Amino acid sequence: MKTSYVPTSTSPRLRTGCAWMFALVLVLASCSDADNPSPQHNDPVITGEGTPNGEPTSALIGAQGGSLSASDGQFTLTIPAGALAANTTISIQPITNEGPLGIGAAYRLQPEGLTFAVPVELTFSYNAEMLKGIPEDFLWIITQAADGSWNALLKSEVDAGTKTISIETTHFSDWAAGKFIDLSLTPASSKVMKGDALQLIITGFSPNDEEDELVPLAPITSESDDLVPLTKIPPVESRIMTFKVKEWTLNGSAAPVSNSNGQLESNKNTATYTAPNKIPATNPVAVSVELEASNKEGSKLKYLLTSTITVVDSDLYLSVTVDGQTHVYYQYGYNGTIPPNGNDISIANSGLSDEDVLEIVGTRVEGNINLIDGFALAVKSPAKGTRSLVCFNNDGDDDMSFAIGQQTGYLLSYTKRTPIPNDYCDTEYMCGETSITFDEDPKDEEGYVRGSFSGKLYEDKTEFGILCKSPIMHTVSGEFRLVLAN
């Protein structure tokens, strides 16, 4: 999902007052009490507890106070003087983040149930990758109760300068960072056959209307033009903020629109995209919706949500995105498909060797001679589920590569180089952090292989070895739906 944030007024940094009321409202209702939506239910989100996911850290802290950071460096606990009456061993255990709309890791603070005479400060760090395009104003800190329900701290404070979220508390439990709302288009990205249609809908998530400091979290749904929380909205708050769908667009052209990029029809918070009968010159296409929030004083905030849609020739394909650029290869010869242009062919194939290695390849060739680009993936013992690729640098049998022309190659295996004194270069053989997901076991699903992958590939150059320079990192992601050729 790509979500841009365009503020037209200064945004508050505290999750109090109008800031959290905005999260509660998400309504296209008028200012009359009769137009306020009725609550559907008031159930908080309940999940299982997080599991340990990293090394714990601990320190002996006494009445003088002190601080302790998590082993991953993304969380810091600061205990002021007077918070503890005696020396106490404090520990931080990183755990999986099971919280609704959680970002990054969660942390279990121990001893469990410990309370403080003076509030302590919890500080979470975040980065752009965790945000995934959402505004920083949408962040807060959440905590899990003993019954598994999640509550949010309305006084969470975001510091965009230091990229941190902080809160004060007087007790220990499981804590995590999260988003108090998630406005997105569903699907955020998709593949669609030429001539086929795809429905898009705005989705969101909001807390309920409790006025206490801790607010239970509940999802929102809507079948109308309103994004309506599942919990009751006090009339006074619904007058403070409205949230409207302003416009749907296809590659910047307002709906309804029909051109070489396809057709887009909109109806309040949903839209239908119909792909053209030939691959558009700009592919993937972008379907966007502009949302506008405003209060009674006239201040406005705008949000642009975008879904990327790739139009494909065949329902058997390999899609590879490298550094934001998408390359699509097709498995012709099945389902009656043939290459539309014999002088410019992007073709994919897959097969399973006798050594139980799944190979997936994609190649684009121009004039049957010139290699434009190509992709290769090898996975030992493929099975349903998600796992990391283990390349030969780590004594594994997996591999992945991407090539541009005959010269440039990006590889999963690479050499990390570190200069040290006396003109010596320390080398370490590494494997790019890359994961793959198979939707089904390729050996069980009637010869089909479906899944996705994401991670990093590395581009090395001859002079990098002389200069003791590490390879250039490139991001890679993709998905595949292919027939096993053997």
From TrEMBL:
The keyword tRNA-binding does not apply. Residues 1-34 form the signal peptide. InterPro entries: ZU5_dom. Transmembrane segments: none annotated. It comes from the Bacteria. Residues 36-65 are annotated as: Disordered. Keywords: Signal. Pfam families: ZU5. Residues 55-181 form the ZU5 domain. The keyword Nucleotidyltransferase does not apply. This is ZU5 domain-containing protein.
